[in-house]
């Protein structure tokens, strides 16, 4: 049986707490009785959460912020979907993840703060932008494209915490399903015009996870001291792009445009970033299930119905 740790008086510091995942996770943690703080470039109020300012590019942060912190959840990172992937933008995407992780490690180790666990976001992009029938598990090696390299460097930076004796968890996240500001909302961009569209040949898989299950996995990573290393955060149901859009169309009662939008058109608009949409493989979540996590939304139709019930 996993040893479940008490959340009484436990204090969690989140980087990137004002982002999509951070907002939901903050609410979930507060509901569980945790004390939560955010580390942000802007020292603004965030409800019941204290927000501390840092500037990771200049390596500026008051070390006293980390006094009494039990867990760090590291979500900070430039949005991969904002802007074309120029060389400058690629550098920003990598550095915003890797350098911030290294800076956190420096602050924690130099000041000898007794951190109970360091939990870092990562992504299933580590396995590469490819379409195949292979089911990728945490034992598979990283691919060599841009996103895979970014994830590998990100995780290697987090591994420094593990090497120093701090329990370290890396959450490799699939496409997050959420109703207001996620990849799902981008797939719904044509819905107001009365139809939905599909991209490429449609046979690429879309690994996905409901925002509630993603928060649940983070809670599991905090509470269960035997959870360590990398875990895929992807629903157990494997879905192709065609199947995904079809399910959306049925729930929203909107037709799906035929034929699919050709790959070359999306590539012309998005460049290298188009590979994220046009390719995708199946991802195993068996490891987190074996650790004792039970998905609330393992079925796509149920997940979409929950998120789109008021639309």
Helix and strand topology:
Elements lengths: L10 E5 L4 H12 L3 E6 L9 E4 L17 E4 L12 H24 L6 E7 L11 E2 L9 H18 L3 E7 L1 E3 L5 H5 L20 E3 H13 L5 E5 L7 H12 L10 H8 L4 H4 L3 E2 L2 H5 L9 H8 L4
Parallel strand pairs: 1-2, 1-4, 2-3, 4-5, 5-7, 6-11, 7-10, 8-9
Order of helices and strands: EHEEEHEEHEEHEHEHHHEHH
Main-sheet strand order equals 3-2-1-4-5-7-10
Total count of strands: 11
The end-to-end span amounts to 42 Å
Largest sheet: 7 strands, parallel
Q: CATH architecture, please?
A: 3-Layer(aba) Sandwich
CATH C-level label: Alpha Beta
How many helices? 10
Structural class: alpha/beta
| Domain tally | 1
CATH third-level topology: Rossmann fold
Poorly predicted spans: none
Oligomer: single chain
Query: How would you name the CATH homologous superfamily?
Result: NAD(P)-binding Rossmann-like Domain
Question: Helix amount, in percent?
Answer: 25-40%
Q: Outline, from the CA principal axes?
A: globular
- Report Rg: 19 Å
Average pLDDT confidence is 91
* Beta-strand percent range: 15-25%
Structure description:
With 311 residues, this protein is of the alpha/beta class. The protein has a single domain (11-307), classed as 3-Layer(aba) Sandwich (Rossmann fold), CATH 3.40.50. The protein is built from ten helices and eleven strands. It has helices at 20-31, 87-110, 146-163, 183-187, 211-223, 241-252, 263-270, 275-278, 286-290, 300-307, and strands at residues 11-15, 35-40, 50-53, 71-74, 117-123, 135-136, 167-173, 175-177, 208-210, 229-233, 282-283. The chain has a seven-stranded parallel β-sheet, sandwiched between helices. The protein has a two-stranded parallel ribbon with strand order 6-11. Strand 8, helix 4 (183-187) and strand 9 (208-210) form a beta-alpha-beta unit. Helix 6 (241-252) packs across helix 10. The relative contact order is 0.14. The model has no long low-confidence stretch (mean pLDDT 91).
């Amino acid at each position: 049986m996993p040893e479940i740790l008490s959340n009484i008086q436990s204090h969690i510091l989140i980087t990137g707490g004002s982002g999509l995942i951070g907002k939901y996770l903050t609410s979930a943690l507060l509901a569980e009785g945790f004390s939560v703080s955010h580390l942000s470039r802007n020292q603004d109020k965030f409800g019941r959460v204290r927000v501390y300012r840092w500037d990771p590019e200049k390596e500026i942060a008051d070390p006293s912020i980390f006094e009494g912190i039990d867990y760090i959840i590291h979500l900070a990172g430039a949005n991969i979907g904002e802007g074309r992937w120029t060389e400058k933008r690629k550098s920003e995407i990598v550095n915003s993840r890797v350098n911030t992780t290294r800076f956190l490690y420096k602050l924690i180790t130099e000041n000898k703060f007794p951190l109970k666990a360091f939990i870092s976001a990562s992504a299933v992009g580590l396995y590469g932008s490819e379409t195949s029938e292979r089911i990728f598990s945490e034992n598979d090696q990283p691919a060599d494209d841009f996103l895979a390299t970014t994830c590998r460097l990100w995780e290697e930076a987090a591994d420094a915490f593990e090497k120093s004796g701090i329990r370290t968890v890396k959450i490799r996240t699939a496409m997050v399903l959420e109703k207001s500001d996620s990849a799902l909302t981008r797939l719904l961009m044509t819905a107001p015009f009365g139809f939905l569209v599909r991209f490429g040949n449609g046979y690429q898989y879309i690994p996905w996870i409901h925002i509630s299950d993603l928060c649940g996995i983070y809670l599991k990573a905090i509470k269960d001291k035997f959870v360590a290393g990398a875990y895929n955060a992807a629903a157990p149901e494997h879905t192709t792009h065609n199947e995904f859009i079809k399910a959306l169309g049925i729930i929203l009662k909107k037709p799906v445009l035929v034929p699919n939008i050709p790959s070359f058109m999306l590539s012309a608009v998005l460049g290298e970033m188009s590979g994220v949409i046009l390719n995708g493989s199946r991802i195993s979540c068996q490891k987190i299930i074996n650790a004792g996590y039970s998905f609330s939304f393992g079925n796509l139709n149920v997940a979409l119905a929950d998120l789109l019930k008021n639309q």
